[in-house]
C-alpha cells in the first residue's frame, strides 16, 4: 500500500538534469517564504525521510517538533505525517482521527492524499470494500486535478493516480477479483515496472484466475479435484473407468508464442505462461538489485569497525514477523542501536547527520532481508507454475534454488521439498523423490509436522510487503490484519502433514512397496479425508492389492466423485 509518505516523498525524486537555472529566481519571485515556513518544510521532509527508513522512534520525536512549528499555521501535512506515524505503529484508529482533524481537504491534491490514506488504513483493518470507496474517491480527486486549467507543471508531481491504482489492484486481489487487479497492476506498471513485487502481484493474479477457472482454457478448483466414474462394458467385462481432474484437464499451454497477447479490452490475457514470465521478470530485477548493492555498498566511518566484526549478520529467521529486525544485530549498524522491540535507537551524543545515516543503513539492511523473502515467494510460485506447465526440469531447478536460500522459512522449505519430489517423480526418479520427502520421517513410518502454527501466524501477520513498501514500521505489522489473500493462504500444519503422507504413499506405490504405501495413504486420509489425490492413491493401492470392494467403497464415500451415465463418453486424454 502507498500512503502519504510515498505520495509526498515522490516530489523529492527530481532529477538534477532537469533543473533549470531559472528555478531559484522564479521561486523567489512567485512565492516568498518566511524563515518559519522554510523551517517547517525542512522539518516535514526530515520526518518523511525517517518514516521512509522506518525509524519510527526518532520520527515520533521529530513529528512533535513539526507540530510545534506548525502551530498557528496550516498543519494539514504535519497531521498527515503524524497519522502516517500512527499507521506505522499499528494505531489505525488514532491515524483515522488525525486524518479527520485535517482542515485542508478542499484542495484536490490534499484530498487525494486524504482519501488514499484512509483507504490504506481500512485495507489494513480488513475492510476491503470500504477501502475501495476511498481509493475511488482518491482517483476522482486526481482526475479533477488533471482537469484544472491552466495546466501547471506542479500538477504532474501532485498527480499520484498510478500509485493509487496500484493500491486498487491490491484491494481487488484481496477481494478475489484477479482480472480487475491485473488491469490495475498493468496501469501502475508505468511507474512500478522496475519493482519485483509488482510482477509478483501480477503473477498472483494469473494464478488466482486459473485457480478460479475464470481464464479460458483453465479449470476451477472443483473441476480439478473432481473424480469422474463411468461404467463401461457388460457382464464379466463390466468395468469402472476413473478419471481425475488433473488428467482430464492436463494441458500444456507453454507453447504459446505471444505470452503478452492482448485481449479485446487491450489487457494481457491472464495465463500460466504469463505468470511464469512475470516471475522471471521479478527474479531478474531482484538479481540485478543484489548485484548492484554488492558493488555499491560503501560503509560509513561510524560503522566500518562494526562491519568488520559482524559482516553479513542476517536475521534469525526469514519469516515476516518482526521483519525490520528479527535479531538484535544489523550488519551496517553501530552496536546497541536496535532494542529488543526492533526499534531503532539514536545513539546518545550523536548528531542529526549520524542519526539519519544510521537510519538509512538500517533501512538498506531491511530491504535486503525483504528481497530474500520476496525471492522465496517467487521461486515457490515458479516451481508450481513449471510443474503445471509440465516442465519438471525447470520446476526442479526453481525448487532447488528455493531450498538453497539462506534462512528460508519452514513453510517454504516444505513447499520446496514437495515440489522437488514431484518434479523428480515426473523425471522417473522416485528414489530421489522419496529422499526429499523422508526428511520429515520420524522413525520408520511417522511424519513430524513440517512447520508449526507459529510459522503460519508469522506469515499471516507479516504478509504485508506492499505495506512495507509504504514504509510502515515493525509495530504496524504486529497489530495489522492479514493482507486478505485468503485463497492463497498456506495449508495448516496437520494438512501439510497429510500431504506428505499422501506423497510418500504415491512414491512408495511407484517403487512397488504397496504395504508401506497402504500405511501412508491410510494416515493421509485420516488427516485430509477430502483430498481427491489421497483418495485416488488409496484406490490405486487397493486395486493393486486385489481389494476391489474396498476401492469401490472409497469411491462411494468420496465427496468429489461424480458418477456419469454409462453412455457418456470420456475425453480422449483418459
UniProtKB/TrEMBL annotation:
InterPro entries: CNOT10, TPR-like_helical_dom_sf, TPR_rpt. Keywords: TPR repeat. PROSITE patterns: TPR. Residues 312-321 have a biased composition (Polar residues). TPR repeats lie at residues 498-531. Residues 303-327 are annotated as: Disordered. GO terms for cellular component: CCR4-NOT complex. One of its GO terms (biological process) is negative regulation of translation. PANTHER family: CCR4-NOT TRANSCRIPTION COMPLEX SUBUNIT 10. Belongs to the CNOT10 family. This is CCR4-NOT transcription complex subunit 10. It comes from Gossypium davidsonii.
Amino acid at each position: 500500500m502507498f500512503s502519504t509518505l510515498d505520495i509526498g516523498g515522490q516530489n523529492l525524486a527530481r532529477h538534477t538534469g532537469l533543473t533549470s537555472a531559472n528555478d531559484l529566481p522564479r521561486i523567489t519571485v512567485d512565492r516568498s517564504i518566511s524563515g518559519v515556513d522554510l523551517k517547517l518544510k525542512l522539518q516535514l521532509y526530515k520526518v518523511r525521510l525517517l518514516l521512509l527508513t522506518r525509524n519510527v522512534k526518532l520520527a515520533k520525536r521529530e513529528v512533535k517538533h513539526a507540530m510545534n512549528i506548525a502551530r498557528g499555521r496550516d498543519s494539514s501535512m504535519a497531521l498527515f505525517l503524524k497519522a502516517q506515524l500512527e499507521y506505522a505503529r499499528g494505531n489505525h484508529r488514532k491515524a483515522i482521527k488525525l486524518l479527520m482533524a485535517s482542515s485542508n481537504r478542499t484542495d484536490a491534491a490534499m484530498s487525494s492524499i486524504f482519501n488514499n490514506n484512509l483507504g490504506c488504513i481500512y485495507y489494513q483493518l480488513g475492510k476491503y470494500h470500504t477501502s475501495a470507496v476511498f481509493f475511488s474517491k482518491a482517483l476522482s480527486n486526481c482526475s479533477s486535478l488533471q482537469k484544472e486549467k491552466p495546466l501547471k507543471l506542479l500538477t504532474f508531481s501532485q498527480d499520484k493516480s498510478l500509485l493509487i491504482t496500484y493500491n486498487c489492484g491490491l484491494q481487488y486481489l484481496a477481494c478475489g477479483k484477479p482480472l480487475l487487479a491485473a488491469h490495475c497492476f498493468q496501469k501502475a506498471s508505468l511507474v512500478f515496472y522496475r519493482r519485483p513485487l509488482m510482477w509478483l502481484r501480477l503473477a498472483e493474479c494469473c494464478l488466482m484466475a486459473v485457480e478460479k477457472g475464470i481464464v479460458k482454457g483453465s479449470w476451477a478448483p472443483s473441476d480439478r479435484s473432481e473424480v469422474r466414474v463411468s461404467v463401461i462394458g457388460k457382464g464379466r467385462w463390466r468395468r469402472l473407468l476413473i478419471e481425475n481432474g488433473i488428467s482430464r484437464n492436463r494441458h500444456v499451454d507453454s507453447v504459446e508464442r505471444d505470452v503478452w497477447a492482448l485481449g479485446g479490452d487491450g489487457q494481457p490475457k491472464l495465463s500460466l505462461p504469463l505468470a511464469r514470465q512475470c516471475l522471471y521478470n521479478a527474479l531478474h530485477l531482484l538479481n540485478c538489485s543484489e548485484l548492484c548493492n554488492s558493488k555499491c555498498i560503501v560503509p560509513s566511518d561510524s560503522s566500518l569497525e562494526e562491519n568488520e566484526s559482524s559482516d553479513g549478520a542476517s536475521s534469525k529467521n526469514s519469516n515476516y514477523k518482526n521483519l525490520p529486525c528479527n535479531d538484535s544485530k544489523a550488519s551496517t549498524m553501530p552496536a546497541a542501536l536496535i532494542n529488543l522491540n526492533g526499534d531503532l535507537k539514536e545513539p546518545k551524543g550523536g548528531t542529526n547527520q549520524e542519526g539519519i545515516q544510521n537510519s538509512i543503513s538500517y533501512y538498506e539492511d531491511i530491504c535486503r532481508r525483504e528481497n530474500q523473502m520476496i525471492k522465496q515467494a517467487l521461486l515457490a510460485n515458479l516451481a508450481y507454475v513449471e510443474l503445471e506447465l509440465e516442465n519438471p526440469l525447470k520446476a526442479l531447478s526453481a525448487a532447488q534454488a528455493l531450498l538453497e536460500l539462506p534462512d528460508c522459512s519452514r513453510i517454504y522449505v516444505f513447499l520446496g521439498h514437495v515440489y522437488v519430489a514431484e518434479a523428480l517423480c515426473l523425471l522417473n526418479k522416485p528414489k530421489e523423490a522419496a529422499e526429499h520427502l523422508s526428511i520429515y520421517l520420524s522413525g520408520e513410518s511417522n511424519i513430524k509436522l513440517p512447520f508449526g502454527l507459529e510459522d503460519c501466524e508469522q506469515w499471516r501477520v507479516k504478509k504485508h510487503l506492499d505495506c512495507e513498501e509504504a514504509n510502515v514500521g515493525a509495530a504496524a505489522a504486529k497489530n495489522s490484519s492479514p493482507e486478505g489473500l485468503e485463497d492463497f493462504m498456506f495449508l495448516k500444519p496437520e494438512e501439510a502433514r497429510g500431504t506428505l503422507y499422501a506423497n510418500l504413499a504415491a512414491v512408495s506405490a511407484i517403487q512397488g512397496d504397496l504395504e508401506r504405501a497402504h500405511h501412508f495413504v491410510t494416515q493421509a486420509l485420516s488427516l485430509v479425508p477430502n483430498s481427491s489425490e489421497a483418495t485416488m492413491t488409496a484406490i490405486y493401492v487397493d486395486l493393486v492389492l486385489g481389494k476391489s470392494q474396498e476401492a469401490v467403497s472409497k469411491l462411494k464415500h468420496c465427496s468429489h466423485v461424480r458418477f456419469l451415465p454409462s453412455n457418456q463418453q470420456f475425453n480422449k486424454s483418459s
